[in-house]
Amino acid sequence: FKDCVIHGLIRDKDGRKMSKSLGNGVDPFDMTEKYGCDALRYYLNTDCALGTDLRFDEIKMTSTWNYINKIWNASRFVLMNIEDIKEITLDDLKMEDKWILTKLNKTIKKARRHMEKYEFNVVGTELYNFIWDDFCDWYIELAKINMNNTTKSVLCRTLNQILKMLHPFMPYVTEEIYSLLPIKDAESIMIAPYPIYQEEFTFSSATI
């Protein structure tokens, strides 16, 4: 190993150390049973800055579960609409297509930079803002108006890249969704290349 990352303590929501005498311990198996492995893994990795203590709050676990559910529902919509595409065609991009591709490209650049510094909480925030606000609340709604081959290609490419960026934090759900993509980089997301910034997918005039 080249680097050793030391995380802080996991405390209860009041900031106290977990102990048998206080009876404030949290069984990770109980949380996994209730919310799933991905929700627990994502929460523990992205809720606090590197080296700081985490105050465990089950309410945040609920929010994480809702986030994963949002990703699953958005992915289901995309998969239902792209099942017939044979290749990615990005030669007739509309303004909203250029906008989401630019947003995606910038998110990839930020995610890579912070991943290299082990700033997982920052990566989590960047991905959350892009996935929830830009992709789910905006682009998917715009895509419903004009679902042509270019739109399908943009949806497929964007979801592909999102899944690969999320995979270190949500390995199970991302592997499941990735396996259903009609066009992908590898048989398993575990061996697929992490997204890279590509200058040609940043459009300076892409605003809506």
How would you portray this structure in words?
Helix 3 packs across helix 5 (120-143) and helix 4 (95-116) packs antiparallel against helix 5 (120-143). The protein has helices at residues 28-35, 37-46, 58-82, 95-116, 120-143, 149-166, 171-179; strands spanning 10-11, 54-55. The chain has 208 residues and is mainly α. The protein is elongated. It has a two-stranded parallel sheet with strand order 1-2.
The run of helices and strands is EHHEHHHHH
Total number of helices = 7
Strand order of the largest sheet: 1-2
Number of strands: 2
Overall average pLDDT = 94
Structural class, by secondary structure, is mainly alpha
Could you give the distance between the termini? Answer: 45 Å
Bin the strand percentage: under 5%
Query: Share of helix among residues?
Result: 55-70%
**Major sheet details:** 2 strands, parallel
Q: Give me the Rg, rounded.
A: 19 Å
Q: Can you tell me the overall shape?
A: elongated
Low-pLDDT ranges: none
Quick structural gist:
56% of the residues lie in helices and 2% in strands.
Write the layout of secondary structure elements.
Elements: E1 10-11, H1 28-35, H2 37-46, E2 54-55, H3 58-82, H4 95-116, H5 120-143, H6 149-166, H7 171-179
Parallel strand pairs: 1-2
Helix pairs in contact: 1-2, 2-3, 3-5, 3-6, 4-5, 4-6, 5-6, 6-7
